[in-house]
Amino acid sequence: MAESEHTASETVAQRVDADDTLSLLQDLVRIPSPYFEEEEIVEFVHDWLDEAGLDPEYHRVEEPDITGYEGRNVLARLEGSDPDAPTLLLNAHVDTVKIVDAWEEDPFSGRIEDGKLYGQGACDMKGGLAAVLVAFRILAEAVDAGDLDLAGDLLLTAVVDEEGPYGLGTDRLLRDGLLDDVDAAVVTEPGPILAQSDVSNPALILGARGRFLYDMEIRGRAAHGSQPHKGINAVVDAGRVAETLDGLDVDSHEKLGDGSVCPIKVEGGSQTLSVPERARLMVDRHVVPGESREVVREQAEAAVEALDLDSEVAVGFRESPDPGIKYGPYVTDPDHALVGSLEGATRRVTGVAPETAYFASVGDFNYLGDPDRGNLPTVILGPDGENIHSAGEFVYTDEVVEVTEILVEAAADLLGE
Ligand SMILES: [Zn+2]
User: Fold this and answer.
1) Residue 399 CB neighbour total at 10 angstroms
2) Residues 54-92: pLDDT tens digits?
3) 389 — alpha (psi -120 to 50), left (phi > 0) or beta?
4) Is residue 250 a contact partner of residue 299, using CB atoms and an 8 Å limit?
5) Where is the Peptidase M20 dimerisation domain (predicted)?
6) Are residues 86 and 149 in the same domain?
7) Residue 9: its pLDDT value, please?
8) How far apart are CA 263 and CA 245, in angstroms?
9) C-alpha 20 to ligand 1 mean position (Å)
10) What per-residue confidence (pLDDT) applies to 5?
11) In terms of CB atoms within 10 Å, which of 86, 104, 153, 352 comes out highest?
12) pLDDT exceeding 90 applies to what percent of the chain?
């Protein structure tokens, strides 16, 4: 857009066009992109940025050992005038969960009805992806037109494989040093729907619990099934361990709330007339700061020890491409300049102050916020909806537009001269 099309009193955020934004979102939803199958949407995002003159680049993501995955992130950077000014990251994932069977309509329709846009991934998180793309373009256009001066850089990362097993896209950004100059991050995941407390948009999510997944191998001793006293029943002992873990006392955190333990899978048994000698229990463990992998292991081992079982029990953590890949908990300082910019922007765009909350589960934002990894002040701000990861998923269209406007306003404030 040329400068002359805009009035002097218009803010840059007012240049966000709702129809444009939602039309882009429909395009994104119409491209199926379950994790590990993102090539088409990655090219679409790249070409969309390229056609807008925003010089996108591909970034290779490979994980040969466990998944055999090969994919590409898309990056674009808007350079500010002052190398010492802060760099803000806008991060969104392009993938969705695997397509859910229960859809009663085309899961890629992008149909809009009653202010809801439907499709697999519409809320998690193509709504947020459309928001960062449009916000980035509007800011770039405003700078180009001489209507806005940015001192700091704005970095856009559209990443692959967030929904997959290891968050490989954002992991690779960190590993390859592409976020080394970043000072703060916004991830436009849907926030309130997965918050620890009951909030609604506009909301800033200022932290998240972390997560470990571990296995317990329970080894008993086989015997004839008619004489169970001669063996050690691994299945029965697995049940005891599961029950104990279910009631385990874990740490809590003033902001992130309680850690949690959830035995999520049990397998075991052998032949039809034998005391089972092996069982395996898989445990989901959401953690708060202070609950490291070692702490989690020690807690589980102590709980087993106290049971004084005849079976032998070993705790193991799931196979990972690298020990550094972990979803650590983090809390963002509410007094950080990014939070201030987002609060002010939210007030100006919506007329109300945002609520604040903390995320219940994990995602790429953990990699960014975890003091052991990205160590970045990281805020989740994204359009909400319903039925994420399931059939009938939708995102609220007005929130997609609102988040786009808040991003523009906040970036202009934080990075402005
Ligand atoms: Zn997501």
Assistant:
1) 23
2) 999 999 999 999 999 999 999 999 999 999 999 999 999
3) left
4) yes
5) 207-308
6) yes
7) 56
8) 7
9) 23
10) 57
11) 153
12) 91
**Other beta carbons within 10 Å of 138:** 26
- Whether 110 contacts 122, CB under 8 Å: yes
Residue 257 within a domain: yes
* Domain CATH for 302: 3.30.70.360
User: 85 and 46, same structural domain?
Assistant: yes
* Residue 1: pLDDT over 60: no
What pLDDT sits at residue 3?
Answer: 46
CA 306–ligand 1 middle distance (angstroms): 39
In a domain, 249, yes or no: yes
Residues 16 and 123 in one domain: yes
Q: Looking at the 3D structure of the chain, how many domains does it have?
A: 2
Q: What is the whole-number distance in angstroms between the Cα of residue 325 and the centre of ligand 1?
A: 18
Q: What spacing in Å lies between the alpha carbon of 335 and ligand 1's midpoint?
A: 26
Distances (CA, A) of 239 to 13, 233, 243, 261, 284: 56, 10, 6, 15, 16
Q: How far is the CA of 276 from the centre of ligand 1 (A)?
A: 40
pLDDT tens-place string over residues 171-221: 999 999 999 999 999 999 998 998 988 999 999 999 999 999 999 999 999
CA distance from start to end of the chain: 22
Query: Could you tell me if 104 and 169 lie in one domain?
Result: yes
205 C-alpha vs ligand 1 centroid, how far in Å? 14
Are 165 and 71 found together in one domain? yes
How close is the Cα of 132 to the center of ligand 1, in Å?
A: 14
Contacts of residue 219, defined as CB under 8 A and 6 or more positions apart, other chains included, come to 234, 277, 278, 311, 312, 313, 314
Examine the domain organization and report whether 227 and 85 are in the same domain: no
Determine the distance separating the centroid of ligand 1 and the alpha carbon of 148, expressed in angstroms.
31
